[in-house]
Amino acid sequence: MSAVFAQTEWTTPPDPPEFAAQSEPVFVSGSDIQEYKALPEYHEPDFVKAFVDAGKLPPVAERLPKEPLVFKTPNMPDGMGVYGDTMRHVIGGRPDGWNYIGGATQGWGGIDIGMYECLTRTGPLFQVKADELEPLPNLAKSWEWSEDGHELTMHLIEGAKWSDGEPFGADDVMFYWEDNVLDTNVAPTGGATPESFGEGTTLEKIDDATVKWTFKQAKPTQFLYAMAYGTFCPGPAHILKPQHPKYSENNYDQYKNAFPPEFLNFPVMGAWVPVEYRPDDVIVLRRNPYYWKVDENGNQLPYLNEVSYRLSTWADRDVQTIAGTADFSNLEQPENFVESLRRAAEETAPARLQFGARTIGYTLYPNLSGNGWGEPNELSQAVRELNRNIDFRKAITYAIDRKSLGESLVKGPFTTPYPGGLYAGTSFYDKDSTAFFGYDMDKAKEYLAKAGLEDTDGNGVVNFPSGTAGGQDVQITMLVNADYTTDKSLAEGVLAQMEALGIRVILDTVSGNSLAEYQQGGKYDWAILRNGSDLVSVVQGTAGLAPVGPRTAFSHRAGTDGTLDLMPFEQEMVDTVNKFIASADNAERADLMKTYQQIYTQNLYAIGLTQYPGALLINKRFANIPAGAPIFQFNWAEDNVIRERLYVPADKQTTNELHPNTLPNTPGVGNGPISN
Ligand code: BQZ
To answer: Which domains does the chain have, with CATH numbers?
Structure first.
């Protein structure tokens, strides 16, 4: 039975209210942004030169790879910069350790993006011409496909070093692949699983600067996106491997937590290294003296000597950046839009505010596993059987008044009802392929009855049929991220609207790092989630579009027996996504995404809620902010704006640096290495 029904009851979604992004990117080719080449001379900040002169650091030319990554000046909006100053972030997360590839998290908000570099890079792709879209080289500086397209040989930067001076190379790549991705006892924080790179894909070391992928499909260029941030950012094998259970007495938990936040100067390939951590207060990072990127004059990057992350709340990030006591925020919670707009409009406003396109969206995800993912009790198992019933999912979607949900967050032209699936206004979106079930409580109740649910005890909540869960009230546990006002507002709205339908929803509001365990562990009946880049860009995080593997989809993962109990329409989604990944034909890919959108929205794989734009908030003293940088597209703005190129002109520099003239790692100076 095809998963795409003939047109019956749904409509196409309402057109989003006019809301123009405030600035458009200048579209370029990837090669206009950067290249790799040796330069005749290199330079560094004076205070770093003093370390060299004191014999505490090798000369800068020896700290750089043979051919550093060179950012091209014409792509720098304000040209080559000067050294100095700091970027002060505020984040709502909290670090539980530095072992990112082992599953530890650092608190988000850009701290991981600035520490862990990946084989390719996609954040800046928002400015790359659509017909030339391909991930940028990064740790992998070039690659070529074999004749038959099944092999991809990747050339790593040569002679680059970790921030502790140890060499970077293929052994780091192979340790990540073999002992963190393929070892399913490890859950790397970026969410990589073997299926992220295609069923049956292998990777081998050719030499210290070369690795070779072998794919079952021919030339699946799609996987180059999976080799970017989140899913292929190798860690320092020289200190991680000895802690891995395969090479030590550690268990997997001890491996994940082997480098707590107190372990300073954790070796990174990123621009800044953690040198100070004060719980619930701040994390300070100083420039990496071995950073492998330069500008065209050979000035070693970053220009900013320091970045810091105040450990506060996400809402406070907006407030502090608008007030000028912080420097960067992704304005993503609509509750703060009006006040932020008002303050940013003032002549003396310290921060510039720039709205982008509607790339932030929320979805209600019914847990679709029927075979034990998350070890459900009897009631939860009964709910999951309901979740797997299209009549029940139709009852939910008809009962949701998306317009009033959006307006409960913010009035005005910002939010638009979101049916689920690919976002309106993005490149693979097709309105005619999108089924929208508009608010209709009568139809909702009709479908609830069709799903076999009646309020048999007259208490206003429908009951399971007598043979199921003892005929008790239908009570649904809904997982909510406690760290965002918006998530909680939407959850409260859904709870009220479900009450009107006759379903009791209990909110399970969970914060920070434990939320990920609930989400990945399937410990929920429904979950409210702010979507990832897969539904915005399609090409980034593609494996998350459907349960293509046992641990790739958000709301349907393998049960206790390791198998995925996919429903027929889900299997068709999986087949469509796999065909998309294997195709290099743009017309075919566009068609496949139309099919995907039809299957997703007609079968209500999940229930879209609302979609709206975010705004980039950055202190006005910073230069080199690319025009039209979205807060979220292929990645977050902390990657998109290319922070290692940002600078503060000399006449605007502040004394905000918390540890001026210090470096990480240099034994005996700066903060020096502190062992755990
Ligand atoms: C941006 C982002 C940078 C994670 C996180 C956080 C985690 C999720 C998501 C966002 C925060 C900010 O988002 O909200 O604006 O700075 O960090 O990584 O929501 O809980 O797990 O996926 O990126």
So the answer is: 30-354+616-675 (3.40.190.10), 358-612 (3.10.105.10)
